[in-house]
Amino acid sequence: MIFQLNSSLLDACVLAVLMKSDTYGYELTQNLKNSINVSESTLYPVLRRLQKNNFLETYDNEFQGRNRRYYKITNEGKKQLKEYNEEWEIYKNKIENILGGSLE
Amino acid sequence: MNKNQYLDKLRNSLKKLPEAEVSNAINYYTEYFEDAGIENEQKIINELGEPKKLATVIIADYAIKNKDNSSKTINKSLSTLWIIIIAIFASPVALPLAIALVSIIFALLIVVFAVLLSFYVASIGICIAAVGLLIVGFSIFTIHFPTSLSAIGAGLIVASLGILLFWSITYIAKKTIYLIAKLFSKVVSKGGK
Fold this sequence. Notes:
The complex is a heterodimer of chains A (104) and B (193).
Chain A lengths: L6 H14 L2 E2 H11 L7 H10 L3 E8 L2 E8 L1 H25 L5
Antiparallel strand pairs in A: 1-3, 2-3
Helix pairs in contact in A: 1-3, 1-4
Chain B lengths: L2 H11 L5 H18 L4 H8 L2 H89 L5 H48 L1
């Protein structure tokens, strides 16, 4: 992919994945890596930022005798995701307008 | 470089951050390596890049977050400081001004109430006059009938005028008090904010 994701879009993508189900760092990265070009190192700061903003919370589960930290979207995070979705719709339409050549 | 060496280097590069931030990041990447499995260890190390570079990204993000917060609090305390300074310098002017303003409002209130009271007294006076006229009218009923009749008639007219004035003044007084109360509550609530 030649287009770069900015940090707001990354936040939106992470929240959207978490909306479906709680997940842990590795799984989240692999899921997103399959469709967009995030590197292994991109997501930690994103998750930390979202957590600090109370858009997601964490809980620890034991897995094969070790700890695994799960990320869960909060109500505030759901609100934020809704806002991102609306903003994205507007932005997407504007870009499509330009790329489709219908811009006067 | 194996996983443990990588994490050690990362921890070293994150030294500038608070302990909680460092352990959070190290825990995350420790878990990450474990979830990826030993067979993917080298691949992950290659993809994550130099520990120093990874640390820079983490530190940068932390710095941005905290810069937003700290600048806000500084601005807030600065503006409070300014308000206090302005208040101190303005107090020699503001205090007499406030006293004058309060006196003017007080004087206006007294004037309004005095006018209302005088109308009240006048209406009561008119009613008393009407009663007097009626008494006179009735007392001379047998002595001089036409005079008595005109006195009673005048007394009734005056009585109706007095009652009319009394009622309208009561109405106006109620409205005025309500308006003043409303104005005061507005001023007080604004001052409270």
